[in-house]
Amino acid sequence: MVLGTFTGFVDAFPMGAVMQKGLTVRGSRQHGQRYIPELLDRMAADEVRTEHLATHRLPLEQAAAGYALFRERADGCVRTVFTP
Fold first, then answer.
1. pTM
2. Distance between CA atoms of residues 60 and 72, nearest Å
3. Are 84 and 60 in contact (CB under 8 A)?
4. Residue-level pLDDT at 44
5. Please, which residues have CB within 8 angstroms of residue 54's CB and are 6 or more apart in sequence?
6. Rounded (to 5) percent helix, strand, coil in the chain
7. Measured in whole angstroms, how far is the alpha carbon of residue 64 from the centre of its chain?
């Protein structure tokens, strides 16, 4: 919750516009250091599948093209996985 009067930008975020429109902004932190080891173990045991998270798979040699796809959101690109 933000109380008070803000104008302009806060870290390039238009806080004044958010307050003017009466919007609610929420955020949180994820506890990666706590959960990532367990997730990696479960992925190794094939208990958690992640293949569906990648929209594009390319060899590492095509990294420049993959980054361009992602930057431009071309061909529906959301997440590219590079294979060495």
1. 0.50
2. 19
3. yes
4. 95
5. 79, 80, 81
6. 45, 10, 40
7. 20
